[in-house]
Amino acid sequence: MNKPEKFTSHGIAASDMDAEKLATYPTTAFLSRDYLEAEKARLWPKVWQMVEREEDLPNPGDWMTYNVADESIIVLRKDDGSLKAFHNVCPHRGRQLVSVPDMLPGKVHDVRGNQRKSFVCGFHGWTFNQDGENTYILDPQDWHNKLTPEMTCLSEVKVDTWGGFIYISMDPDAAPLKQWMGRAGEILEAHELSKMRYKWRQWAIYPCNWKTAIEAFLEPYHVAGTHTQLLAYGDYYAYSKQFGLHAVSGYDVREADYKTETSGGTTRSGKAGLDPRVSTYELIRENYETVNYSASTETLVKAASRLKDELPEDATPGEVIAHWIASAKKDDAARGVIWPEIPEDVQKESGLAWGLFPNQNILHGATYALCYRVRPYGDDPSKCVFESYALERFPEGEEPETEWVYAEPTAENWGAVLEQDFANMEFVQKGMKSSGFRGPLPNPHQEQKVINLHRNLAEYIGEGAPTLLDIE
Ligand code: FES
Ligand SMILES: [Fe+2]
């Protein structure tokens, strides 16, 4: 990376980020094929990764494949109701046990099925039960009866659940998932993600590195420059804070005098100086409608629309928010959607959205979440599999039926706001290749999640660590 002479670099620690020191990181992580190979060797086989929502594999025998880089994993719901996961490879001569074509736009997202009692390899017929044990080999005597169960079983993968998601780790020595999620997991779980269900789910093959894509959703610093229409009713100043592997961002105010403890998430009042009864409604309506009807709910938007009729003209922003939340909560309760009681200490820390290492982003609320996951696509560092989905708490029995829908990155498919994000991502990927780019200058207050991603990636990859900028 080209750096101006006056920058001298030092390594960066979590405490440096807490102190909001200036930092940069190399662009190798986005551009280099060697780095992509290093991710295959040292990142993906070592980290806990979200596979799918639990409700997608509800019954004994339900199974699916999860694919990332060169790895393919089979996840199965066994007859006893527990989950089991294996590398999708036959121990005989290495055929994929289940054939998984490359993800194909509009055609293949993953491979899944039901009522599976055993897996039979299509090449020579070796067979495996739900525990991955080998139950059939043609002519085992030809190996002089020396094949042992350990040599002929499937390679097991760790599987666990959190927040209604199925996770896997290919690392036999992986720390428990709960420990991996840490405080971020506790805070998000207080929002009862496990009781939410898909509202919609979409994916695309997109022309940028997977990190370029996830970073486009890690920080609200870009809102003023990218989503200018959103500024009419709200300010998007944000803090960000590392939580070890994971990191959070939340709405903030530039002047300390105006700070309130409840302003971190989407249920906030509109801009100072406007009638909060109106601006709160306009802000949430605009967000909801232009982010593909997510990051809030119909209940919240409707309750906000009544604020002007239900509250006096001189209601303060604090009173407006309290009334709005209370009436939405009541409306939801009447239709059988009971909000979680979120402890105050959790509320204070919970912010607007979490970057979950390495490749997820969850923007959460009491009854909804807008989520992103990005994976590499093939061996091209300039391509990714981009996924976004909305979760919501529905009255029992009213959960919509959804499946992964391939959607070209247009405003029509994804909403006006995501289309604006898409309009940057491809050109960030291109711009970073410029010989005139001296390296990123992330905002130490607002874009700490991005710095934290690179700090943690470097722990796995062994290169690419952010460095401090000492400007003389
Ligand atoms: S490769 Fe699977 S049985 Fe031969
Ligand atoms: Fe955006």
TrEMBL record:
Residues 48-168 form the Rieske domain. Keywords: 2Fe-2S, Dioxygenase, Iron, Iron-sulfur, Metal-binding, Oxidoreductase. SUPFAM superfamilies: Bet v1-like (SSF55961), ISP domain (SSF50022). It comes from the Bacteria. One of its GO terms (molecular function) is dioxygenase activity. Its cofactor is Fe cation. This is Aromatic ring-hydroxylating dioxygenase subunit alpha.
